[in-house]
Amino acid sequence: MKTKAPAKLNIFLKITGKRPDGYHELVSIMVPVALFDYLEFTLSQKPGIRLSCQGLFIPDGEDNLVQKAAKAFFFNTGIDQGIDIEILKNIPVAAGLGGGSSDAAVTLMALNEMSGFPLSDAEMEKTALSLGADVPFFLKGVPCLAKGIGEDLSPFENLPRFWYLIVKPPFDISTAWVYARLKLELTEKKHDYIINYLKKEPFEVVRHLENDLERVTIARFSAIDSIKKSLLNAGAEGALMSGSGSSVFGVFNSKDDALKAKRQLSPQCLGDIFVVQGIC
């Protein structure tokens, strides 16, 4: 089976609290976008899980989320099956784009389909959450309002299908590093108020662009703020860091506008640049 795993953007992200287990509660709007990793799965008589990867570097072995996802699937189903997995990695890592989580979700879905759907939707979601807070989102494949630690998901309907210009600067940011430095007093709005605020019609993306984690990352990586300003100067309707960074995106109403901005920004050597459309 051949399939593809999309990246995501957080077009809204507010941290609303911290749980006793250390996880942070949040409210976020997450949008899948057409920047893909490509994965191919081949069942094998030879036992074990074997990965090969082309493109961008990712860790292998037990640190790889695809490896973890395949291992979790076979453990939860009791299926004794060998699998060869080939990955073409295009989504930058440590970039706030969810590439590893997306690859893990696609792995679960592919193995479940190839094995005759032994796991129910609820079991798939439970397995996905055990791999990471963002993984359940990628089972949905549509824009979602995420609550809790990201596992409480509901489709976010009527979201315009914007074009996005994503800039991945030449440095990575650890999600754990960002959350360890987050001051909860930075979040001034209450949970229920935020939910009601986001559900008001019509939803205007540019007016709602907000990310609590920016204040942590910009204090250490000023280039993120510079990239946001460059995107706005290039015609973006709005600009924001995605997730815990380091990627920054600009919102555009058309592909032509986004491509024009890419031509303007490319000589500035800000990093890798991608023009993508949202997936609805």
Describe the structure.
This protein is of the alpha+beta class and 280 residues long. The chain folds into two domains: 2-155, Ribosomal Protein S5, domain 2; 163-277, GHMP kinase, C-terminal domain (Alpha-Beta Plaits, 2-Layer Sandwich). Helices cover 33% and strands 30% of the residues. The protein has ten helices and eleven strands. The strands form two sheets. Strands 1, 2, 3, 4, 5, 6 and 8 form a seven-stranded mixed β-sheet that branches. A four-stranded antiparallel β-sheet has the order 9-10-7-11. The protein is globular, with a radius of gyration of 19 Å.
Spell out the key features of this protein.
globular; Alpha-Beta Plaits; 280 residues; alpha+beta; 10 helices; 33% helix; 30% strand; four-stranded antiparallel β-sheet; Ribosomal Protein S5, domain 2
Radius of gyration: 19 Å
H/E topology pattern? EEEHEHHHEEEHHHEHHEEHE
The coarse overall form would be: globular
How many helices does DSSP assign?
A: 10
Number of strands: 11
Q: Could you say what the CATH architecture of the largest domain is?
A: 2-Layer Sandwich
Largest sheet: 7 strands, mixed
Question: Under the CATH scheme, which class of the largest domain?
Answer: Alpha Beta
Mean pLDDT: 90
| Number of structural units classed as domains | 2
Share of β-strand residues: 25-35%
Structural class: alpha+beta
- What is the first-to-last residue Cα distance? 24 Å
> Which stretches of 5+ consecutive residues score pLDDT under 50?
none
The percent range for helix content is 25-40%
> At the third CATH level, what is the topology name of the largest domain?
Ribosomal Protein S5, domain 2
